[in-house]
């Protein structure tokens, strides 16, 4: 049985969900961002108990197809930006369409209607949050950050950064303002 869970955005989220499942003695096969696989179907009582336990931790058990699709899109983007350092072998829209086995224009329309922002803007917001994180760490140059986030050049990163935050990456780094947002708040 596959379950979809909203707001799972990091390894700690996966660990927290896994702990809940184990406390409930549910047969866990795997836990990944936004997705849990169990070795059997849950009873309606188990599902209700799980939904309540997850809600206490800030997660949500998704039931409808639209919510599941939106969450899959978000998790793919989060994983791509925050946990993978590889450049895509296909363009971003093709990547999402291939991963979700759906037409990109349909995914894009659905995402925009539900989230009130385009997939592209969500993707950019994630990249800028990752750039902020890397700037705060102060371990990489701006050129290295641009390269890691697959920007064509530093100017492209700087322009997007300023458009989203209202300040340049250099200024942000100088003031070390730690007004970063949680991934799931984007």
- Give the SSE order as H and E letters: EHEEHEHHHHHHH
Based on CA atoms alone, the radius of gyration comes out at: 18 Å
Beta-strand portion reads 5-15%
Question: Strand tally, please?
Answer: 4
Quaternary structure state of the chains depicted:
single chain
Please, how many helices? 9
Cα-to-Cα separation, first versus last residue: 29 Å
**Which structural class do you get from the secondary structure elements?**
alpha+beta
Arithmetic mean pLDDT = 90
Largest sheet geometry: 4 strands, antiparallel
Which regions contain 5 or more consecutive residues with pLDDT less than 50? none
Described by the principal axes of the CA atoms, the overall outline is globular
Read across the widest sheet, the strand sequence of neighbours is 2-3-1-4
Instruction: Kindly state the percentage of residues in helix.
Output: 55-70%
Question: How does this model look, in words?
Answer:
This protein has 186 residues and is α+β, with helices and mostly antiparallel strands. Strands 2-3-1-4 form a four-stranded antiparallel β-sheet, sandwiched between helices. Helix 3 crosses helix 5, helix 3 runs parallel beside helix 6 and helix 6 packs across helix 8. It starts with a strand and ends in an 11-residue tail after the last helix.
């Amino acid at each position: 049985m596959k379950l979809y869970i909203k707001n799972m955005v990091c390894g700690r989220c996966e660990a927290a969900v896994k702990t809940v499942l184990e406390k409930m003695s549910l047969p866990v096969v795997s836990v990944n961002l936004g997705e849990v696989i169990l070795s059997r179907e849950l009873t309606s009582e188990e599902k209700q108990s799980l939904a309540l336990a997850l809600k206490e931790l800030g997660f949500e058990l998704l039931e409808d197809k639209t919510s599941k699709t939106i969450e899959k899109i978000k998790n793919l983007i989060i994983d791509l930006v925050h946990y993978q350092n590889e450049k895509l072998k296909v363009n971003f829209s093709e990547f999402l369409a291939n991963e979700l086995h759906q037409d990109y224009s349909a995914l894009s329309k659905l995402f925009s209607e539900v989230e009130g922002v385009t997939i592209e803007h969500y993707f950019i917001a994630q990249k800028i949050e990752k750039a902020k994180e890397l700037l705060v760490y102060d371990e990489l140059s701006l050129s290295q950050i641009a390269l890691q986030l697959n920007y064509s050049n530093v100017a492209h990163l700087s322009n997007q950064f300023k458009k989203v935050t209202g300040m340049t990456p250099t200024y942000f780094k100088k003031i070390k303002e730690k007004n970063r947002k949680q991934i799931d708040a984007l």
